[in-house]
Amino acid sequence: MGIEPALEAIARKYNCDKMICRRCYARLPLRATTCRKKKCGHSGDLRPKKKIQSKK
Fold it and tell me: Coiled-coil regions in this chain (predicted)?
């Protein structure tokens, strides 16, 4: 009882394939180079969002 591959790809795009600002924790697009938020000074210190662990 799994999820359809096409639906899974769409869900991953909107929820998982993101970048996170290390200063303000904003969720940003995957291709972002700087943060969009003013409160962190448009920081360039980004990391990829951590991948969820698959269930056994």
Answer: none
